[in-house]
Design brief:
There is one protein chain. Helix content is 40%, strand content 11%. With 292 residues, the protein is an alpha/beta fold. It has a domain of 174 residues: 3-Layer(aba) Sandwich (Ribosomal Protein L4, Chain: A). It has a six-stranded mixed beta sheet with strand order 2-1-3-6-4-5, with helices on both faces. Strand 4, helix 6 and strand 5 form a beta-alpha-beta unit.
């Protein structure tokens, strides 16, 4: 296939991006760098749709079950004779046509799980974040780690950021992304409707796409940046390991070591020599006997 030349715009989007950082009062206090790997990726809506379908399918337990007429407890006696009654012919009372009987063609336990390749999962996660950033549905806040675990504090912050409606309720679905487990923030935000709190490590493409707004803590961006940096290091290490000789770890060709001969092997090699000597002696003795 012919190589596709990348546009200059696509190459430039891979660089680090800038975004405004808000404080708890809703005022801009500075700028933050967004890692281009996560916020400047190629957005493919069919791929995102496929990933969400796989995620939702994997949430199904598949433990549904119904009883057929075989498993229903009841008499197996024929309810009346076959002919002469003028009614339809029937067997036992457990037939699906009767109330309390078995279920015909009902659901049975089933595995609904689907899989998605690793690279596709990574691309979908980056594409979901990029989609929110490009549509202006992403904000970064700072100073949230120091608040008291009270709902009114988080409610006031959401109001200052413009997420609350006129009636004081959260009009948009928002997900708050934390860098780690922060008990005070979780306790302060768990009682607010349409607000979900998640950690960066547990964040998925489904979590990002099912809400209207994404609110990152500034510390969470550092965790994402560290994750991308560690990935690059692992890739470099893997390439070097392939290039270098793993046995020596110096990149030099491995020297062939002389073969060591064990005592058992030496005995095995000596045995056939003894047999040949014995055969030769027998032949000589046989010839001498004939001559006599």
């Amino acid at each position: 296939m012919p190589r596709v030349k990348k546009d200059k715009e696509q190459i430039e989007t891979k660089k680090d991006l800038k975004i405004d950082v808000y404080n708890l009062s809703g005022k801009v206090t500075g700028k933050a760098d967004l890692p281009g790997e996560f916020f400047a990726a190629k957005v493919s809506m069919p791929l995102i749709n496929q990933a969400i379908r796989v995620y939702t399918a994997n949430q199904r337990a598949g433990t549904h079950d119904t009883k057929t007429r075989t498993f229903v407890i009841g008499s197996t006696k024929k309810i009346y004779r076959q002919k002469g009654t003028g009614r339809a012919r029937h067997g036992d009372i457990k037939a699906p046509i009767f109330v309390g009987g078995g279920v015909a063609h009902g659901p049975k336990p089933k595995d609904y799980s689907l899989s998605l390749p690793k690279k596709m999962r990574q691309n979908v996660f980056c594409a979901s974040l990029t989609d929110k950033f490009q549509n202006g549905k992403l904000k970064v806040v700072t100073g949230l780690a120091e608040i008291e675990p009270k709902t009114k504090n988080v409610n006031l912050m959401l109001k200052n950021l413009g997420y609350l409606a006129d009636d004081g309720a959260l009009g948009k679905s928002v997900i708050l992304v934390l860098p780690s487990v922060m008990r005070n923030v979780i306790l302060a935000g768990r009682n607010i409707e349409n607000l979900s709190v998640s950690q960066v490590e547990n964040l998925s493409a489904y979590d990002v796409m099912r809400v209207q707004e994404v609110l990152f803590m500034k510390e969470s961006l550092k965790v994402l940046d560290d994750r991308s940096a560690s990935k690059v290091k692992e890739d470099k290490k893997g390439k070097k390991a392939i290039e270098m000789d793993l046995s020596l770890g110096t990149g030099k060709p491995e020297e062939k070591k002389p073969k060591t001969v064990t005592a058992k092997k030496a005995k095995k090699e000596e045995k056939p020599a003894k047999k040949t000597v014995k055969k030769a002696v027998k032949k000589v003795n046989g010839k001498s006997a004939k001559k006599k």
